[in-house]
Design goal:
The chain is 27% helix and 28% strand. The chain is α/β, with parallel strands linked by helices and 201 residues long. It folds into 2 domains: 109 residues, Double Stranded RNA Binding Domain (2-Layer Sandwich); 71 residues, SHC Adaptor Protein (2-Layer Sandwich), CATH 3.30.505.50. The strands form 2 sheets. A 5-stranded mixed β-sheet has the order 1-2-3-4-5. The chain has a 5-stranded mixed β-sheet with strand order 6-10-9-8-7. The chain is globular. It starts with a strand and ends with a strand.
Length: 201
C-alpha cells in the first residue's frame, strides 16, 4: 500500500504496509509526523515509512515501524517497535529527528572547521579478514552466499562516508573516495576505530 503526499512542493512521503492492516488514521499520522523532518533538514526530498508486524506471539511489542529520509547527500534510517502502530511511529520519528539533528550539528561544525579527531586506518584488502572476529563461526562450517545486494557507490570523502555509515547504523560502507576516485570500503574495527580499504588498479 503506497500513499504519496499531495503537496507538490512539499516533502514526498510514501507510506507502505507489509502484510499488516493499516487504517487511514495511521497513514495520516505518518504523513504528518514525517513532514516535520523539513524543520530539521530543508534538503529532505523523500521519506518512506514501512509498517510491519512480528508474528512471534511471545513478542508483545510486535508492531514495527521503519522510516527512511533521503537528503541531498545522505540517507537517514530509523526503526522502532511497540504494542501499537502509532506508538511505534512516535518512537521511530523521535529517533529520526535525533539522527537528522545530529547530522545538522555536524554540518554546522564542518562549516566552522576545527582540528579533526576523525582518523581511518588504511590497510591492504588481504589484511581485512585478519581484523574480523571469527570465533563465533564453527571451523568446519562452510560459508554460503545467501544474499546478493546491489549498491550505488557515491563519491564522497572518507569523513562523509563515516557519517553516512553512522546514520545508517552499519558496520561498513562502500563508496568512491572523492579524494582519489578509488573504490573504497570503510568499516568499524573491533577496537572502535575505523578501517579503510581502497582498491587499486
Amino acid at each position: 500500500m503506497t500513499m504519496h503526499d499531495g503537496q507538490a512542493s512539499a516533502l514526498e512521503i510514501v507510506v507502505r504496509a507489509k502484510r499488516v492492516d493499516l487504517d487511514e488514521r495511521v497513514r495520516d499520522a505518518a504523513r504528518e509526523k514525517l513532514g516535520r523532518i523539513r524543520r530539521f533538514a530543508k534538503d529532505a526530498s523523500r521519506a518512506e515509512v514501512d509498517f510491519s508486524e512480528l508474528k512471534n506471539p511471545r513478542i508483545a511489542a510486535n508492531q514495527v515501524c521503519e522510516a527512511t529520509v533521503h537528503l541531498r547527500r545522505h540517507v537517514v534510517k530509523a526503526h522502532a517497535a511497540a504494542k501499537e502502530q502509532l506508538a511505534a511511529l512516535d518512537l521511530c520519528v523521535e529517533k529520526l529527528e535525533h539522527q537528522v539533528a545530529k547530522l545538522k550539528e555536524k554540518r554546522v561544525a564542518r562549516a566552522h572547521p576545527r582540528r579533526r579527531d576523525f582518523q581511518t586506518h588504511a590497510m591492504p584488502a588481504d589484511d581485512y579478514a585478519h581484523e574480523q572476529n571469527l570465533a563465533a563461526s564453527e571451523p568446519d562450517t562452510e560459508a554460503r552466499l545467501v544474499r546478493t545486494k546491489q549498491l550505488t557507490m557515491q563519491a564522497m570523502s572518507p569523513v562523509d562516508a563515516a557519517l553516512q555509515m553512522e546514520l545508517l547504523g552499519h558496520d561498513f560502507f562502500l563508496f568512491t573516495n572523492a579524494e582519489n576516485h578509488a573504490a573504497a570500503v570503510l568499516y568499524r574495527r573491533h577496537d572502535g576505530h575505523l578501517g579503510l580499504i581502497e582498491g587499486s588498479s
